[in-house]
């Protein structure tokens, strides 16, 4: 049971992020919610790579126990970098819109509809 | 059997035959048009457009713009459009909710049924 | 040299446009002409590599490319316990077909941009993003690795969103870009969550390995629902289409024509996941019906929303939604009968061929239509149908190209839209007559709405306010002409296209075991 805690935490983080996205009106907070979803996904990815008692996969002088597959760590790092890029891009969009529209409220960003 | 024939499993479609038929129709149309008068007879007065005796409208008035077309269609489908068009609210929150709702429906469809 | 290119074609397909994108700020310092030459050369070389790769695949079977390995037979190292450690590109007929026309449309849209964006500022960023969008699309369609697929999906989304915001236009296009970027990022994260679930169970990211171990547990069902929802959003299927009209209408015309291909890469991902990763293990009747329902909703809602639109590009964007419904419908019918060999031979295969044929046809005629809309916007400064009129007097070539595109999208013979729609109608009629009738009614409404657009833009007396409007510059005409020519050629020779390209692509999707064997056999 205890080994499943990271997966539950990942699910809870994703759900918190989604709740933030759909309940907050401020666009910056919505982007923060998206970052929370991303954190939850990262946690899920990293948790899948956990081996109890495993060591880092460095072959020099390694003890002959189970090694951890480094794929998930690489995936998580990649996704963190991608997340920084998306968050920066979305925040810069919000910046331009709040300059031009004078608001960050998502319910007022509705010049394109129907 | 011409190589261009597309078999759909139930029928066939040959664009070349269609194009030949099209060319024959154009030839016929051209032939019929040739039977007519080559030019407008008289002083040119008869070449003007006749709109029930009214003057020809200015270019701005003479063109019916985009949203006036298919007024009848949209009016007849009013009940449908009154429901569907307001769904496109333009609000990002609603779009995210649609995404989550579709996921939930898909999951019920795939996982539960 | 030639052997080197042939042997490394899948890697070069990604490397060439990426190098082109990152070198662009340097080349751009030399001036406009070197930059235009660079961008056209890079996209043309990419298209040639894609054509070579497609030729290799169609003549010699699927190509396997293992990154960082001495030869592709090292796809699965001897001591790895049957798991490919390296990133593997699996290019089968479906991938090659998508890559080929994506690279071609990339070249055409860049050719168009050379003229249409000649007066804009910030061209270095614009072309760099166009090339990155091309990288994203080509990567999505050629990779055989799920996480790699996600990375290219994000490149695709980010480059696309940034391009939508390229003309700020008082902030309105940034609003469109924000919606597009936000929704595709959310969809991308859901796809990644599903990938994490699959990795946790099957210890691999390779699609073929996952396919060979797939046991369709509850977690797999969650992952499947997440993948379908995420990729259907990227493809713009109703009810996840809301970003489509915003992004398509506000982006520059060349970008819109390319974004159509970008969303079709999402559609490709959806088909790849359904057929190659899950395949026969999933409950194909239920999932197939889910895809059909998405398709029918897209067709009907897309076309009916298009009719009352006043913005010409917004109208065309709703038609793009409607047309992707045809592809979902055709392939969905194929999925429903996936396990039934008799029904598959009777109509399922034709339905899938029709759906896949429609993908490339749609990229051609929809790209053409968006490019003509961009030409009109460039010369008149408006997209509002109520303000246009009489342009047929001054923009004769654009009018001709518009007619070709409009007749093709409405499915009028002898243009290419008719050939693929005919295949879809007849095979779907054997499956369910009601859906076939819906598809035909949607086609009639499409024709009706393009008659409206044609009348509003081109017909009527010449308007005084557009008296000095002239035809667009030659590169734009050449780009539109190339697409128009292909639209006609693919309509006149449909059987050649179907038998050489489309049928192998459909087979590649249907035959899951061949896909798995490509990786395990170490071809």
Automatic annotation (TrEMBL), chain A:
Kindly give the InterPro entries that the UniProt entry links to this protein.
CPA3_antiporter_subunitC (IPR050601), NUOK/Mnh_C1-like (IPR039428)
Q: Which residues cross the membrane?
A: 6-23, 35-59, 79-97
Where is the protein localized? Cell membrane
Gene Ontology cellular component terms for the protein in this record: plasma membrane
- Gene3D superfamilies the record matches: 1.10.287.3510
The topology of this chain with respect to the membrane is: Multi-pass membrane protein
Output the superkingdom of the source species: Archaea
| Principal place of residence | membrane
Q: Which residues form a coiled coil?
A: none
Key word Cytoplasm present = no
Give the residue range of the signal peptide.
none
Supply the alphabetized keyword list: Cell membrane, Membrane, Transmembrane, Transmembrane helix
Protein name in the entry: Cation:proton antiporter subunit C
Identify the species of origin: Methanogenium marinum
What is this organism's lineage? Archaea, Methanobacteriati, Methanobacteriota, Stenosarchaea group, Methanomicrobia
């Amino acid at each position: 049971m205890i080994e499943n805690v990271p997966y539950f935490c990942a699910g809870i983080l994703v759900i918190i992020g989604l709740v933030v996205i759909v309940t907050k009106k401020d666009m910056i907070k919505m982007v923060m919610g998206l970052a929370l979803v991303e954190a939850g996904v990262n946690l899920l990815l990293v948790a899948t790579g956990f081996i109890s008692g495993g060591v880092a996969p460095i072959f020099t002088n390694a003890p002959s126990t189970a090694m951890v597959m480094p794929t998930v760590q690489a995936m998580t790092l990649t996704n963190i970098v991608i997340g920084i890029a998306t968050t920066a891009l979305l925040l810069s969009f919000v910046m331009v819109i709040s300059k031009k529209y004078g608001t960050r409220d998502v319910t007022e960003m509705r010049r394109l509809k129907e | 059997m011409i190589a261009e024939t597309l078999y759909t499993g139930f029928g066939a479609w040959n664009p070349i035959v269609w194009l030949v038929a099209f060319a024959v129709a154009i030839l016929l149309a051209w032939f019929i048009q040739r039977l007519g008068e080559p030019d407008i007879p008289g002083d040119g007065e008869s070449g003007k457009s006749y709109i029930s005796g009214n003057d020809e409208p200015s270019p701005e008035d003479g063109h019916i713009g985009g949203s006036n077309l298919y007024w009848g269609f949209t009016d007849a489908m009013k009940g449908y459009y009154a429901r569907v068009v307001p769904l496109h609210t333009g609000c990002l929150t609603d779009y995210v909710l649609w995404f989550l709702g579709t996921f939930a429906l898909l999951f019920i469809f795939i996982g539960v049924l | 040299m030639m052997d080197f290119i042939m042997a490394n074609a899948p890697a070069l397909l990604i490397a060439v446009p990426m190098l082109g994108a990152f070198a662009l700020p340097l080349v751009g310092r030399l001036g406009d002409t070197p930059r235009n030459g660079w961008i056209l050369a890079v996209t043309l070389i990419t298209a040639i590599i894609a054509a070579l790769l497609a030729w290799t695949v169609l003549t010699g079977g699927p190509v396997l490319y293992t990154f960082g390995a001495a030869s592709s037979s090292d796809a699965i190292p001897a001591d790895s316990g049957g798991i490919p450690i390296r990133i593997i590109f699996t290019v089968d007929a479906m991938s090659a077909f998508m890559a080929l026309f994506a690279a071609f449309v990339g070249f055409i849209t860049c050719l168009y941009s050379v003229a249409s964006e000649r007066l804009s500022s910030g061209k270095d960023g614009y072309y760099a993003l166009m090339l990155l969008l091309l990288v994203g699309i080509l990567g999505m369609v050629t990779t055989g690795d799920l996480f790699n697929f996600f990375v290219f999906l994000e490149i695709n989304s980010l480059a696309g969103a940034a391009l939508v915001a390229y003309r700020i236009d008082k902030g309105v296009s940034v609003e469109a870009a924000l919606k597009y970027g936000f929704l595709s990022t959310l969809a991308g994260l859901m796809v990644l969550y599903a990938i994490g679930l699959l990795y946790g169970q099957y210890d691999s990211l390779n699609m073929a390995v996952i396919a060979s171990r797939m046991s369709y547990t509850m977690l797999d069902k969650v992952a499947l629902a997440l993948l379908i929802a995420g990729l259907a959003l990227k493809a713009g299927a109703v009810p996840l289409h809301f970003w489509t009209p915003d992004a398509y209408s506000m982006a520059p015309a060349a970008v819109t024509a390319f974004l159509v291909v970008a969303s079709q890469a999402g559609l490709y991902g959806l088909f790849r996941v359904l057929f190659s990763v899950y395949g026969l293990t999933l409950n194909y009747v239920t999932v197939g019906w889910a895809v059909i329902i998405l398709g029918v909703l897209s067709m009907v809602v897309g076309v009916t929303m298009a009719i009352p639109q006043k913005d010409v590009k917004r109208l065309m964007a709703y038609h793009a939604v409607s047309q992707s419904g045809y592809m979902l419908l055709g392939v969905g019918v194929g999925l429903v009968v996936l396990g039934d060999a008799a029904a598959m031979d009777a109509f399922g295969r034709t339905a899938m061929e029709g759906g896949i044929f429609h993908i490339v046809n749609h990229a051609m005629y929809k790209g053409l239509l968006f490019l003509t809309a961009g030409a009109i916007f460039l010369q008149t400064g408006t997209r509002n149908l109520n303000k246009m009129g009489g342009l047929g007097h001054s923009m004769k070539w654009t009018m001709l190209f518009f007619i070709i595109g409009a007749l093709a999208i409405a499915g009028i013979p002898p243009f290419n839209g008719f050939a693929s729609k005919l295949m879809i109608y007849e095979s779907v009629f054997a499956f369910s007559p009601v859906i076939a009738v819906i598809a035909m009614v949607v086609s009639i409404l499409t024709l009706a709405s393009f008659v409206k657009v044609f009348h509003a833009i081109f017909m009527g007396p010449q308007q005084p306010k557009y008296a000095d409007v002239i035809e667009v510059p030659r590169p734009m005409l050449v780009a539109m002409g190339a697409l128009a020519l292909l639209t006609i050629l693919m309509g006149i020779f449909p059987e050649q296209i179907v038998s050489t390209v489309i049928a192998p692509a459909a087979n590649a999707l249907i035959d899951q075991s061949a896909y798995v064997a490509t990786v395990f056999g170490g071809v």
